[in-house]
Give the backbone structure.
Amino acid sequence: MAAISHIDPKEALAVKARVEQLSFYYGDAQALNRVSLDLAERRITALIGASGCGKSTFLRCFNRLHDLYPESRYEGQILLKPDDINIISKAVDPLEVRLRIGMVFQKPNPFPKTIFENVAYGLKVRGVRDRHFIEERVEGALRQASLWAETRDRLQDSAMTLSGGQQQRLCIARALAPQPELLLLDEPTSALDPIATANIEELLSELKEQVTILIVTHNMQQAARVSDFTAFMHLGELVEFGDTDTVFTTPRQKKTEDYITGRYG
Amino acid sequence: MDTRSLSQHISHEYNQELEAVRSQLLSMGGLVEQQINQALQALVEGDSQLAETVVQTDDRVNQMEITIDEECSRILARRQPAASDLRLVIAIIKASTDLERMGDEAQKIGHLAVSLAGQDRPSGGYREIDQLGQAVQAMVRSALDAFARLEVDTALRIIREDKLINREYEAIARQCIDYMMEDPHRVRRVLDSMWAARSLERIGDHAKNLCEYVIYLVHGKDVRHGNLDAAERELLQQ
Ligand SMILES: Nc1ncnc2c1ncn2[C@@H]1O[C@H](COP(=O)(O)OP(=O)(O)OP(=O)(O)O)[C@@H](O)[C@H]1O
Ligand SMILES: [Mg+2]
């Protein structure tokens, strides 16, 4: 049985991105198998599933990171609304895609530059030159990522001098600075303490007024706390998709139930 | 879900905690069931000593409710159960409240039994109340079985049976009013019997609640305050 992948029309929500029959291959190895999924505009969708099921692979399709490897191959499409461009089409410039979609990775990956330059990076790539505007956005993004208090006096230090958790918040600030339409986060809080985690979660619920969010998390409670919709993947396939309340109280599929309740699958 | 799935968590301890609190609830059910049976017997046979026992059992029932609720809070805080585990914990918390109330009603019947034992017995004994009581006892037993075995069919049947119990109670109440008008000297005794019938009817309501939790637990469906036929059709389709 194919999993339901579309948002219930009763919800009357706009779709920000529609993934249709997306398959992905690392050379001969298939990592995603015909995944279809809608991301509701200005809502948070959580993507959960066991290690190795393809969550990061799925996220990387959204900003064409796989293009860096010639042997990788996509099938299907990812339509970004409202203009319906197919993100993974060869005809679409990956740079344009990356301008509209912010991404935070599983492991913090700051550039070997100053804290300021890291956050300002996305704006400069977009050709923003107004110094005052850039400073304002950098401060705003650092505040949003709850990193401002710790870095305001050392913006010119190398980002590499930050702790792991601080680096992760820096990467969140970097993704936020250009005000993306879609924000993808791959386990953004796995290296953070409970307070920083709560701050990021709070930030996500504030951000969703402006941006559509897809978050990968291994923490079931986090998915239950922050998301409006939850998608569960297993071995490269989408098993279940639905509103988070339903998925966490009465999931339809036994596989989902076993996973979220910590049972042997 | 079925009863086996309780033991399939990766965490052994979690399996044991859920199993333990579930069996505590079932023993509480057993105790309340016994309390109800004894209350009815004490009343029908005019056995005031047995009635005293019933009254005293209530402390134990109350204590069990507290223990079960504490254990459930602990599981909620430490395990953050989801899906069927969450529904199980919620159903247990609710069921323990209903069982405690059933215990209170049994205790009331115990007090009434003491009072009635000190008055003359009616010529027909307490036949109507006995009948109502038997029906309620059977209902409680089936409700607890349905809870233990997660049997939705049984639960649905009991929910329907509750209507019959309510009707039977109303018949008894009407009859009691007739008696009181006929013979004003017996008002005290008739009123006592009417209160006992009322308590039995309440126990039936709580048994029905237990059955509603069984359906919630198994299917995640809340059938309270709703159209049971529609709910049943929907459950059958699944
Ligand atoms: N560069 C790669 N080349 C070949 N196979 C890969 C590559 N990256 C990932 N895979 C494989 O693709 C599958 C999905 O990996 P992916 O990283 O998407 O999983 P994940 O769901 O993000 O897991 P985790 O929760 O551990 O981060 C795995 O079997 C993995 O071994
Ligand atoms: Mg990953």
